[in-house]
Structure formats: C-alpha cells, structure tokens
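Milestone M4 deliverable, item 7.
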Amino acid sequence: MAPVLPLGLPLQSRIRLAQGLWLLSWLLALAGGLTLLCSSHLLVQLQYLGTFLAPSCPFSALPQVALVAGAVALGTGLGGAGASRASLDAARYPPWRGVLGPLLAAGTVGGGGLLVFALGLALGLPMSLDEGLEEGLGTALTRYKDTEVPGHCHAKLLMDELQLRHHCCGRHGYKDWFGVQWVSNRYLDPSDQDVVNRIQSNVEGLYLTDGVPFSCCNPHSPRPCLQSQLSDPYAHPLFDPRQPNLNLWAQGCHQVLLGHLQSLASTLGSMLAVTFLLQALVLLGLRYLQTALEGLGGVINAEEETQGYLFPGGLKTAWLQGGVAHRAAPEKTPPEEVPPKELG
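Output delivered:
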C-alpha cells in the first residue's frame, strides 16, 4: 500500500527542511521554557492565594499539568535542534537515527497529549474560580478571629496581607465584615454591657459590629482611618457612609482575585497554544526528514530525490520503528544460458 501523505524531497528541499527545523526547534525550546516560567509563577501565586480557594476547586491542576507539558516541549525542542543539525552532516547523523523514533513518539504522545490536556484545563478551569473563591473567601472571613485555634492561627495574618497587598476589603465589599465576628472572644470584655447586648441579640451568639479590620483602610485617604460605626451617619463628622471608598478599599477581594488569577491563566493558555503549534510543526518536519533520510541510508547530500511521509503503507509500522523507506534493491537478471557447444 502507498505511504500516507507522501512528499517528494530533492536535495535542496531536504537541506532547507533541516535548516528550517533547526530554527523551529529552538523556537519550541524557547516557548517550552516560557511555559515553564508561566506555570511556575502561577504555582507560586497559588501557594499563597490557594488559602482563599475552596479545597474542592480544581484550578491548581492547571499549572501542574502545564509545568510537565512545558518541560516535555523544552526537551523536544532541544532534541529536534540537535537532530536537524546533525542531519546536515552524514558523519554526525548515524547516532541520531535510533533517537528520532523515541523522540517523535514521546513528543507526540507525551508532549502533544499533555499540551492538549493543559489547553483544555486553561479554557475550562477558570470558570470554576468564581465558586472556589466565593467559598474560600467566606471561610477566610469566618476564621479571621481564630488566632488561637490550631490550624487557623494564621488566617488573620493571611487575610490582612491579602487586603493590603491587593487593595481590597471583604469578599464583595466592606459590608461583608458586618455579618461575621472578626474580633476574637479573647479581646471582648464580658463585663461590658454593650458587648453582652450584641452577643445576646444575635441568634448564633456572635459579636457583630459595623466595623472592619485595619487592613481595609486605604492609606491614600487624607483622613485617619475609620474602622467602626461605619453605618452611623452621625458617628463621624464630615464622613458620608455612602462613599466609603474615600476611606476604605472600594473593591471586594473576590473580584480582585478572580481577575488576577484569570489573567495569569489566560497568559498561560496563550503560551500553551503557541507551544502546541510549534511542537506540531517540529514533529511533522522531523518525521518527514527522518523518513526521507532513511530512504537514502541517512545521507542528506545524496543527489537523488527521495520521499518523506507520515506513515508507511497501511499504517502497519509505528513511528518507533523508524518508518524506514528503504529503496528497493535492483532486480537481478538471471544469467543467460550458454548453449552447449556441439562436439565436432
């Protein structure tokens, strides 16, 4: 049966193919390295911001898969650059003949599969961030007061750092703090009648106030920070509760983190798409170069034209077998029979 997608490659075409593959392979290595950097950066961000994601949120799988895909793409690019350069020299190419088959198989099955999987994650997982942040930030707000509870003692520190670093307050706004107790019971005076009244007036026995933590305060505000009695229009002179952005961070942390993480995921997805395109071109080019050179016994500067292809006839031979397209040996013509000499 005829080979699949055959392509005639004379001498000059083979040389240009090898030279073009060398350049594309280095571009693939560069794209794989950038994918590694983007996925590593997202992983580092999630080490800190993962506290504010629900445990069931699968978003952290994206940088992990992309990290492996980028490493495979980097290795494929370096291998392709070495093989294409060696193919221009008949003396240097023989050691690469046994390497190209496994390289093509690993790049196609491993690298290609991982890149497609990571691309799917980059397109689908950012949609799960909304619910993951909603639940995770809600939990962080309720644990803010648990400074002496094992496992939660750093919740206050992390939430304060989040609000100060990302210029946000609460989950969707500063009023979210009005619905949770964010002051530890240790710092409440049980003899204070106001504290007792607030706790008794709440069904769950929580101490709720119309105040916010100090980390919600905007240091660019021209006036001192106002943290308490924010819903009372007469508690603070010259302060309008309807315009808290003059004193507090205006945005909620949900909106800020959602935009931040989606932006990182979008950048990583773009790098994955570029890497996938380059890897497909490099693998296709290497396959055509491999089968073309095998048809010439590994000598690129042979004068005759040869044929490269993706698969041998009938797809009976895998890429690991090298796709050898040996030239047919010339048919031997049987020797002419010499008629017996007549005896005189």
